[in-house]
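Morning - iron/sulfur cluster inputs below, output right after.
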Amino acid sequence: MQKEPIFLSQKELDEQIWAMAAFQAVEDRPRSFHIVTYGCQMNAHDSEKLSGMLVRMGMAETEDRRHADLVIFNTCCVRENAERRALGNVIWLKQLKNEKPNLLIAVCGCMIQQPHMAERILKQYPFIDLAFGTHNLYRLASLLLELADKKHRVISVSPEENMIAEGLPVKRLNDYKAYVTVMYGCDNFCTYCIVPFVRGRERSRRMEDILREAEKLQKSGVQEIMLLGQNVNSYGGGKDFPKLLKALDGIGIPRIRFMTSHPKDLSDELIGVMASGKNICNNLHLPVQSGSNAVLKAMNRGYTREQYMERVQALRSVVPDIGITSDFIVGFPGETEEQFMDSVSLVDAVGYDAAFTFIYSPRVGTAAAKLKAQVPAEVSAERIRRLIQAVEQSTARVHQSLIGSTEQVLVEGVSKRSRTMVSGKGRRNITVTFAGDTRDTGKLIQVKINAAAANTLRGERVTTE
Ligand code: SF4
């Protein structure tokens, strides 16, 4: 049962809009900003919201952080590596602040939402001016106003976790594809995962708000939307996601994707909508995490290997050309060699297009971090090498099978490797390169595939839509 969200009231929204305008009257206010984003698409979209508010406050975005008056680190805490990288970069800014004393440094997002990290950052990094957690993002304008007024650091980490803020400005990264958040938080409490502790319980946006946003995007010429949620297919408690997807499909945006889906919420109704939808892309990211039932149980994933395979087969029976991608964790506490090999065999059994593979990273506050039988680092490192090899073989098989097919590609720009080639994603979410130039960016182009490389497909243009 999802928690009833509290929607930001009109009065609170007006206060934030007022703070954005009032900030422009501050004499020595920052004029430029730079945001460094770590982590997932949810964070990338949060950064678009931060940018939108800062632009409304009269600031301009700069690509070079050395030229910015305000630098924001939007952090991730899903793995220790991401935290380490963020903290390393924050220290680098200390030097910049010595040269440029008016520079403002802000840290926000998931890392700050963890009490032990917030405490550590505040003690060990006194040069940070502003820190705010995931639940306080919408208050950026009033926090900056408070900082300008008091001239001492401002910290805002609220435990309030079921707020949904509609109506804030957004500055999107590009104008042909867009993120649309449909739900926030997660109730699943996988034993290794910190997300429910830093993003709060599941809560869903109102369907009418999502549809209104999508209609606006369609009118502005957006070609693809990505629906976002930590557990996107549990939108409205799971029962409403097929209805939402069907309604969005009718709006006429040519491509719709969604992530991240939980296998337990991949219902027959949702599979039916995916099969009948005109604009829903034939790609599903369906994290499995392990191929071993014992490990899945210890992870509290809520399904068995057999149930996962049954869902994959049900989907493939009605969407035969669906491309499935996944996430795997190796070295979960207590994972034996045999259990690890169950993950390798699952890669072959499913035939994934691609998969992200991670070494288990203990997170303070999660149930798995307390387990005694941690797998030695060298064992995990060796296992992940073998798993990556299995995934690469699976990807190669899929890529080979697509030679001769025609893919609809949304061009993202000139290829990094050659100025005469462009690249973009096919509907199956595989990168495709072909001859073209910057005029193709943002267009949908039919491409005949004639070669396959490890991570990309190559082809030649057939038609532009
Ligand atoms: S489903 Fe599990 S892994 Fe995904 S966000 Fe929720 S707790 Fe984390």
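Note: The longest strand covers residues 406-414.

O.
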